[in-house]
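writing this on my phone so excuse typos. first protein, seq and then structure
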Amino acid sequence: MDLFGLGLNSYDVALMVVCPISAVVGSFAQTIVQTIDLKGPPRSELDMTWASPKLQEFRSAWLGLRLILGAILGLVIGLYFVGAIQESPAVLAKIAALSVLAGYAAPKVWAAQDKVVSAKIDKIVSLEIDKQAASNENQKDT
């Protein structure tokens, strides 16, 4: 199958569909872990509290955004492997499993990426400022 003449085969398309869905599953699992008490189930009604409607709305928005971040990360993983895998169900399953784990870790992945990008930008800006300052000093000396 050649999707829109782009040279994508059925496994490439499967990667771009399965990986985001798998990452959403991982993201959802991580939100469950954040929400529940992993030590055990509630023992009485006093252990449970209900959020206000406004807080429920905010949590719903947070959950939706969290799942979207997982899907984006899953898509990135899928795109990374497009055209580079041996076409077998086992390989597809392994990449889908990797996507579940990436979706679970998505907040940490995005935070780490943000730190790396910010440090890189700061370094580039600092070098440009130093160049500009040196250029201005050279112009004053002449």
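second protein below, same order as before
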Amino acid sequence: MPKFKISMKNTNEKFVSGNGETIILTNTEYDPAMWIVEIFKKSMFGKKKTGSYWFSHKEDAEDFVTDYVKK
């Protein structure tokens, strides 16, 4: 029986909230079970991470991002 290699790509989706924060939804091939939402705010010296949220399901992470962008 032949062996198949499952190839997965890293996922990085970028969103911008109503108040100018950058939200990045990430899923890596090294830990495909985790979906990470990172929130960045512009500051005088670049970007500052203001939040990091971890989800085990893509749908939960997408729902969080959708709600966050609306506020």
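The CA atoms of residues 21 and 41 lie 5 Å apart. thats all i got for now
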